[in-house]
Amino acid sequence: MNTVSASVLTIDFHGQPALELTAPDGARCLISLFGGQLLSWIPAGGSERLYLSPAAHFDGRSAVRGGIPVIFPQFAERGNGPRHGFARTRVWQVDESRVSKDFATATLRLVTDDATRALWPHDFALELTVVVSGNRLDLELDVENTGDAAFDFAAALHSYLRVKEVENCRLEGLRNTRYLDATAGDTVKDDRLDALIVEDEVDRLYRDAPDTVVLHDSGRALGFQSHGFPDLVVWNPWEHKCKALADMPDLDFRRMLCVEPAIAEKTMTLAPGEHWSGQHTILAA
């Protein structure tokens, strides 16, 4: 019988510091300190379930294409700062890490400094907690206003999921949900179908999204449960836009689908001393 050595290790990954978490049952994940970003998740006895572009940049400056980037304090171009904010291009600190008899966990933290103030003039503390065990990945994102004035923010866990063939996938659970279609100038539409099937570029922001959706992928599935995030973004660049991405192979749009819990359509306001937290769980089957 094979035994697994549960651990939390600091490693070098493409020249960047990262944490490798291994649970007692063999479930594993990899978190880059640059961006506080998950780059890999392998459930116990399973295979990789996150997409990481083989052409991703690891230069310590550029956002890394793939995994689960943390979007904060701005979603896309909905603001005056960098696209998708600055959290994904800052180095986070390890606040806590440990292994128990059932799981491995780590909490990373990002706080205000001169560089963030130059981009966004507010004081904050951002924490990401990751728990890996069995077929389950749990993420919690926490935002605290540490300043003396209220601020508005957006946030998302921009999850790139590895799929066998995106055209064979079915995303279920969004029927009768209203969404903004970015491929049609943010036209408001209603999803009337039992499942979303990707046959062209998809860039949808589902408003007041259901807490639970399921992605079926060629005989396997991923279930998503979110709390605290009002929106759900679904994205695939398809062939034409994928070719324009320098950090992604031309045909890799077939190997990924982003399903990301978000505060995106409307920002959230935090008064001084207030917290917000959002939870996201992915279950592999």
TrEMBL record:
Enzyme class: isomerase
One GO cellular component term: cytoplasm
Lineage of origin: Bacteria, Pseudomonadati, Pseudomonadota, Betaproteobacteria, Nitrosomonadales
Superkingdom of the source species: Bacteria
EC id: 5.1.3.15
GO molecular function terms attached to this record: carbohydrate binding; glucose-6-phosphate 1-epimerase activity
Family recorded in the similarity comment: Belongs to the glucose-6-phosphate 1-epimerase family.
Protein name listed in UniProt: Putative glucose-6-phosphate 1-epimerase
Keyword Isomerase: yes
Record GO biological process: carbohydrate metabolic process
Transmembrane segments: none
Catalytic reaction list: alpha-D-glucose 6-phosphate = beta-D-glucose 6-phosphate
Keywords: Isomerase
KW Isomerase (keyword) present: yes
Active-site residues, Swiss-Prot/TrEMBL: H158, E260
One Pfam family named in its UniProt record: Aldose_epim
InterPro entries: Aldose_1/G6P_1-epimerase (IPR008183), G6P_1-epimerase (IPR025532), Gal_mutarotase_sf_dom (IPR011013), GH-type_carb-bd (IPR014718)
